[in-house]
Amino acid sequence: MPKSILVTGGTKGIGRAIVERFAKEGFDVFTCARNAHDLANLKAHLEENHPGITVIAEVADLSKKEEVQSFAEMVKAKGIPDVLVNNTGIFLPGALHNEPEGNFEFILQTNLFSAYHLTRAFVNDMIARKSGHIFSMGSIAGLTAYPNGGSYAVSKWAMLGMTKCLREELKPFDIKVTSILPGATFTDSWAESGLPEERFMRADDVAESVWGAYNLSPQTVVEEVIIRPQLGDI
């Protein structure tokens, strides 16, 4: 029976690179995003290039708890994924003391609460099965505070803390838990920065680190992966 991976926010950037990497290895794919056109394009691309896999790509806004739960129930009806990658995220610049009202709640709902609710939707089945690997997509911003990072940085610090807690809780059940903490990666959010593309990491490199962390023996887990551009943070 083929293994499967669920990647939230799988149509662009790091999420898409992870989807592509695991699809290449024959994994069935579950993913979601807010844009139906992007999902349809991804599904067609994967099915054309990896004809042996099943691709389920659904519209969902994971900043809304009810949509997280609806998406989770749809996936569970098909099966419990072997790998869960909580990748959905949004960055809105601003300082905590004067950012627009509502930014804090929206960013935490998108970046943190979505991962909390989605993980809870699957983890009891993983425990019963005694297998699974949960990845949380954090950020260097979850390790180092910086100006204009505001609520985004808070969400990533909290994501790292939540992932550490999950690691301790799930040890006895043979479920692996890994934090991925990338620095600046060339995605759409950086495309207008004016900096040369070679100054950034490649999304493919982050995806390769996820595959490497997953593809280890059962008695070994990578707890955290910190990845930075060779020339340092931006």
TrEMBL record:
Q: Does the keyword Phosphoprotein apply?
A: no
Extract the GO molecular function terms from the UniProt entry.
oxidoreductase activity
Note the CDD domains from the entry: SDR_c
Keywords (A to Z) from UniProt: Oxidoreductase
* Alphabetized Gene3D superfamilies for the sequence: NAD(P)-binding Rossmann-like Domain
Q: Which domain of life is it from?
A: Bacteria
InterPro entries reported for this sequence = NAD(P)-bd_dom_sf, Sc_DH/Rdtase_CS, SDR_fam
PROSITE patterns named among the record's database cross-references: ADH_SHORT
The record's family statement is: Belongs to the short-chain dehydrogenases/reductases (SDR) family.
Q: State the protein's name.
A: Short-subunit dehydrogenase
Q: Which organism encodes this protein?
A: Algoriphagus boseongensis
Q: Lineage of the native species?
A: Bacteria, Pseudomonadati, Bacteroidota, Cytophagia, Cytophagales
